[in-house]
Amino acid sequence: MASATGVEQQRQGRASGIYFAALLAGNFALALGPWSVRLADSGPIAAGFWRLTLAVPLLALLARRNGQALTGFAPMTWAAIVAAGVLFALDLASWHVGIGQTRLANATLFGNSGSVILMAWGIVAMRRLPRRFEALGILAALTGAAILMGRSLEIDARSLVGDLLCILAGFFYAFYILLLQGARARLSNWSLLTWSSIAGAPVLLALALWQGEPVWPSSWGPLIALALLSQVIGQGLLVFSLKHFSPLVVGLTLLTQPAVAVAVGWFAFAEALAPLDLVGMALVAAALVLARIGEQPAARGTRAASTSA
Questions:
Q1: CA quadruple 222, 160, 263, 108: dihedral sign
Q2: Which single residue of 72, 82, 88, 304 has CA 20 to 30 Å from 178?
Q3: Within-domain flag for 8
């Protein structure tokens, strides 16, 4: 009996290690997404279009292989999916343009600001004063964002615009999550990601054409990498692992994204960070962790099925 229990504990330990490795790898893959956006020779909004379009066949295949229905939804569910796809497209458009105008570390942090925005929105919706960790999270987010945007303004006014665009992306993403909280209960992860990608792709194409961006690339490598890393592998690994960990662990692993973005920005684009930048990043990162601690399960499940970073 003791031997059987020991074997079971070893098996559980190995499984836990696999899930944790998947969680880290998913965050690492998502952190490389901005690099691909920078390298793409299409426009940034067009890169978002290709990110969704190229990923759809794989996402649909994953939905089918996991026995998830892709048809037969109620009219209200279809309406929610289409509206969510539009918000998701606006999120990607704002974020991808912002990536080109600010540092990768700032873009990664502010692109994940939807967690903090959701926390603040929940407090307002419940008409109550924030709890201690919520107040600390909001204060840390505001202070850290002010430091980073002030530093961006010192470098170039366009960097401040990039920061603001990435924060705007966080707003779009927060409302995307709120819209899908009800639909998420009736729609599985891969189905949700497939149809939100299908609904969002035409919006991104229209925006890219409206802005006069080059749409058809001469080099497909960065766009294929973007679709696979951000839309399939990154989110796929998060879907695989997320339910096995507490919000605190998920929040802490989220901090690997800005760390990877700093390394990529330094290595590929010679982006240097001053000590004050690191202070601002630490404050925003702490706010993201606090927001994850307070997340509702529905929001966490929807986040795993979708993507921003």
A1: negative
A2: 72
A3: no
With contact defined as beta carbons under 8 Å apart, do 235 and 51 qualify? no
Could you tell me which of 92, 89, 96 has the C-alpha nearest to residue 199?
89
Alpha-carbon distance 56 to 64, whole Å? 12
Per DSSP, the three-state class of 115 is helix
Distance separating alpha carbons of residues 23 and 303, to the nearest angstrom: 13
Instruction: Decide if 215 contacts 88 (C-beta within 8 A).
Output: no
Q: Which residue range forms the structural domain that includes residue 24?
A: 19-305
Which residues neighbour 281 within 8 Å (Cβ) at sequence distance 6 or greater?
105, 109, 144, 148, 258, 262, 273
What sections of the chain are H helices per DSSP?
Answer: 2-31, 33-39, 44-65, 75-99, 104-111, 114-126, 132-155, 157-184, 189-210, 221-226, 235-241, 247-254, 256-269, 275-293, 297-305
**37 belongs to a structural domain:** yes
Ranges 126-130, 178-182, 304-308: which has the least confidence: 304-308
Tell me the two tokens of residue 2: 């003791």
Residue 252, pLDDT score: 60
Q: Residues 234-248: what's their mean pLDDT?
A: 71
Q: Do residues 110 and 167 touch, judged by C-beta distance below 8 A?
A: yes
Q: How confident is the model at residue 14 (pLDDT cuts 50, 70, 90)?
A: low
Is the CB of residue 30 less than 8 Å from the CB of residue 234? yes
Angstrom distance (rounded) from CA 11 to CA 47: 42
The structure's pTM equals 0.79
Total number of domains constituting the chain = 1
Confidence of residue 207 (pLDDT cuts 50, 70, 90): very high
State residue 171 phi and psi, 5-degree precision: -65, -50
In-domain check, residue 246: yes
User: Is residue 36 assigned to a domain?
Assistant: yes
**What's the mean pLDDT when you consider all of the chain?**
79
